[in-house]
Amino acid sequence: MANTPYPESYYAASANAVPPRPALQDDVETDVCVIGAGYTGLSSALFLLENGFKVTVLEAAKVGFGASGRNGGQIVNSYSRDIDVIERSVGPQQAQLLGNMAFEGGRIIRERVAKYQIQCDLKDGGVFAALTAKQMGHLESQKRLWERFGHSQLELLDQRRIREVVACEEYVGGMLDMSGGHIHPLNLALGEAAAVESLGGVIYEQSPAVRIERGASPVVHTPQGKVRAKFIIVAGNAYLGNLVPELAAKSMPCGTQVIATEPLGDELARRLLPQDYCVEDCNYLLDYYRLTGDKRLIFGGGVVYGARDPANIEAIIRPKMLKAFPQLKDVKIDYAWTGNFLLTLSRLPQVGRLGDNIYYSQGCSGHGVTYTHLAGKVLAEALRGQAERFDAFADLPHYPFPGGQLLRTPFAAMGAWYYGLRDKLGF
């Protein structure tokens, strides 16, 4: 079987050393078979192992191969749709439960990094940057909303204050979240995988799940082996393919593009982002950026619906970077890559159970770094019989894309064009 390597990226080039992990080549039995060794699968596996379950993880390529190892590396709280939107759709009781969980993912990441001594360049502090007075007004109401759910590490930034944290002339203000922050995302995933193995979990790489035999004792088949389990957790997200058809109809893989500059040196890096916070703007089609441990600027943005790889990523993203930082016009781009995340129509995650023993979480819609870590805990709780928090997510409505898989890409792209126009016109 072909060996699928990491796609070329700054993260793959600067990844910590890891042991070889063989493909599954025989039949094994386990308590829980986790499909996918990204954040959702690794977080689930870790919580289950800490609670005494025997866990086997199947990964089609390599640990963190998908969005977990390619994203912007930003720890951003809440969900892709905020708690007020959830409240309007599901009512106050369910919204209270989901609101209470909205800031938990970042705490879980920090606990994991500390407990398992994961080397992933963790830095505290994330900035939401407003380009218009309307966006600033939204941040003011967002701060009030988040504080209502007990989140207190927030500071509004006026025009003078935001200039102190980011050297960009475009912004009229912003909000600093000190419980936000940034990490080397692939090294976080690799560190979590090592933690899984330290507790007796087994991870098979190059072992795609090709078929699930459902029933009282479900079996997951790979090209060269199979896993018989009491429970299955499906955590493939944008890389699941059509393994579970009923999940594929309700979600759409989307590509996002990222570039990394050459090392900027201490002085220039400090001028751009003096406190080393990460930044995202408040546009619907947002740009995001941060410094790496070796003082490169990582800059991402743009969405390709249907997850095609654009021909020239640098041509798409470099102009966005230079709009924010014209002072980087002579800086070389060392890496450019794309990665897929999974979009849902509601932009809320989809969590649920198929039959009695197949659990899933998918569709972070661009808010995956923190949500996936929470999802792992919530799925593990459900397998232990504590389903209240799981049910709060499972009860969110799931909608199929209009026109099914044929029309979901043009439908979403049309929506993005509309919101992109609104961003440009400042609506």
What does this protein structure show overall?
This protein is an alpha/beta fold and 427 residues long. Helices cover 35% and strands 24% of the residues. It has 14 helices and 17 strands. Strands 3, 4, 5, 6, 11, 12, 13, 14 and 15 form a nine-stranded mixed beta sheet that branches. Helix 2 packs parallel to helix 12, helix 3 packs antiparallel against helix 4 and helix 5 (104-115) crosses helix 12. It starts with 9 loop residues before the first helix and ends with a helix. The relative contact order is 0.19. The mean pLDDT is 90. It is an enzyme of class 1 (oxidoreductase). Its EC number is 1.4.3.-. Residues 31-381 form the FAD dependent oxidoreductase domain. It holds the Pfam family DAO.
Which key terms come to mind for this protein?
427 residues, alpha/beta, 9-stranded mixed sheet, 8-stranded mixed sheet, 14 helices, 35% helix
SSE arrangement:
Elements: H1 10-13, E1 27-35, H2 39-50, E2 55-58, E3 74-75, H3 83-90, H4 92-101, H5 104-115, E4 123-130, H6 133-148, E5 154-157, H7 159-165, E6 173-182, H8 185-198, E7 202-204, E8 211-213, E9 219-221, E10 226-234, H9 245-248, E11 252-261, H10 266-272, E12 278-281, E13 287-291, E14 297-305, H11 313-324, E15 333-343, E16 350-354, E17 358-362, H12 368-383, H13 388-394, H14 404-425
Parallel strand pairs: 1-2, 1-10, 2-7, 4-12, 10-17
Antiparallel strand pairs: 3-6, 4-6, 5-6, 8-9, 9-10, 11-14, 11-15, 12-13, 13-14, 16-17
